[in-house]
Write a structure and sequence with these properties.
mainly alpha, 4 helices, 67% helix, 0% strand
Length: 72
């Protein structure tokens, strides 16, 4: 997702936030959570993707396995 799309979606989810705050102060994870919640509240179906289906998802699975091995 491009920065512009992210900014617009967060601004639509929370119109009280300024563009500056969204772009420079709002943590990405919190912004994505606001987008997700807003879309659910507006009736969009949100499906958690299968991590094995994308390059980034497969990378994340490897990272999780690496940390699981350290915690054992």
């Amino acid at each position: 997702m491009s920065e512009a799309v992210y900014t617009v979606l967060v601004a639509r989810a929370l119109p009280s936030l300024s563009i500056d705050y969204i772009q420079h102060h709002l943590p990405l994870a919190q912004g994505y959570a606001f987008i997700h919640a807003s879309r659910i509240l507006h009736g969009d179906v949100m499906i958690w993707p299968d991590l094995r289906l994308s390059k980034r998802g497969r990378w994340w699975l490897k990272v999780r396995e690496l940390f699981r091995g350290r915690a054992a």
